[in-house]
Amino acid sequence: MTKRVAILISGGGSNMVSLVEAMKADDFNAEPVLVLANNADAGGLAKANGFGVSTAVVDHRPFSGDREAFEVELNKVLDAHQPDVICLAGFMRILTESFINRWAGKMLNIHPSLLPKYKGLNTHQRALDAGDKVAGCSVHIVTPELDAGPVVGQIEVPILESDTADTLAARVIKEEHKLYPSALKAFVSV
Ligand code: GRF
Questions:
Q1: Residue 77: strand, helix, or coil
Q2: Which of 24, 63, 84, 88 is the most buried (most CB within 10 A)?
Q3: Domains in the chain, number
Q4: Distances in Å between the alpha carbon of 171 and those of 52, 133, 141, 157, 176?
Q5: pLDDT, tens digit, for every residue of 127-155?
Q6: Ligand 1 site-directed mutation target among 9, 87, 108, 110, most atoms within 8 Å of CB
Q7: CB atoms within 10 A of CB 179
Q8: Helices (H), 41-86
Q9: Could you say which residues of the chain have pLDDT below 70?
Q10: Rounded to 5°, angle at Cα 8 from 4 and 11
Q11: Where residue 69 sits, what CATH number does that domain have?
Q12: Is 183 inside a domain boundary?
């Protein structure tokens, strides 16, 4: 059975685009059924519309920090689309344990570091500050502890002497666009 995939975004959605494009292949056992943003300005929404994928916005701001109430609305939209898999793709909201448990084993995230290194934000600058020779990106199954779930795929990216956080991020995100589709493909094939 073709797996139904919902993709959650907050911004430009370049990882979402790489997932949607990859799922067009005949041998990819998944289809995008929803792109959901927490922000009506997310540039990825127009891109998803361009692909003919259903989109939705659940703005977190009216909930004034009430994460549970925000997630009730998220779940309403998700349940209406019956996803088998949820891909977090640059979704910049912390999710509660109860939301994550509701989708246990069905939710993936992409993170721009070689986990378990550099959970959280500013990963590239932290790798540079530490004097690392290699950076990269990881796809992991989402569990309640932030960026700590089982890693299902990683790609390493060498750090150059001349790198800034921006130049490193630009090279890492190119690898994210390869890693996430391949990790999702493997995830929906088991
Ligand atoms: C990516 O670097 C992702 O790893 C991080 O946020 C960025 C999202 O970029 N969590 P995009 O919206 O997919 O272009």
A1: helix
A2: 88
A3: 1
A4: 29, 14, 23, 7, 9
A5: 999 999 999 999 999 999 999 999 999 99
A6: 110
A7: 22
A8: 44-50, 67-81
A9: none
A10: 145
A11: 3.40.50.170
A12: yes
